[in-house]
Design goal:
CATH architecture: 2-Layer Sandwich
Structural class: alpha+beta
Enzyme class: oxidoreductase
CATH class: Alpha Beta
Protein name: ribonucleoside-diphosphate reductase
Shape: globular
Catalytic activity: a 2'-deoxyribonucleoside 5'-diphosphate + [thioredoxin]-disulfide + H2O = a ribonucleoside 5'-diphosphate + [thioredoxin]-dithiol
EC number: 1.17.4.1
Number of domains: 1
Number of helices: 3
Number of strands: 3
Distance between the termini: 18 Å
Strand content: 15-25%
Helix content: 40-55%
Family: Belongs to the ribonucleoside diphosphate reductase class-2 family.
Strand order of the largest sheet: 1-2-3
CATH topology: Enolase-like, domain 1
Length: 92
């Protein structure tokens, strides 16, 4: 399992903790610190076990109110960055 922490921008949550499968394709878990606790716990449960690619294509660009982003959108950035980081570690 690969773990990655991301600091989101422009949203209420302060940290997104991502755990991916060893190959980086599947989400093992996602946890948020800060933000709308109930909603973000639900998002974490919903995406657990899903393919990163599917979640990113579904939630990227999601907005919150007048903000140009959302916690779900920031999570897609975290997932993409986690995959890049894992791939970079494999090359080294």
């Amino acid at each position: 399992m690969f773990e990655y922490d991301y600091t989101p921008h422009g949203v209420c949550s302060q940290n997104i903790h991502v755990e991916l499968s060893d190959d980086g394709r599947t989400i093992e878990s996602v946890g948020f610190i800060g933000g709308c606790n109930g909603n973000l716990k639900a998002i974490g449960k919903l995406v657990s076990g899903m393919a990163v690619e599917d979640v990113v294509s579904l939630l990227a660009g999601n907005t919150c109110g007048l903000r140009p982003t959302s916690c779900a959108d920031q999570m897609t950035i975290a997932l993409t960055e986690a995959q890049r980081e894992l791939a970079a570690q494999r090359v080294e």
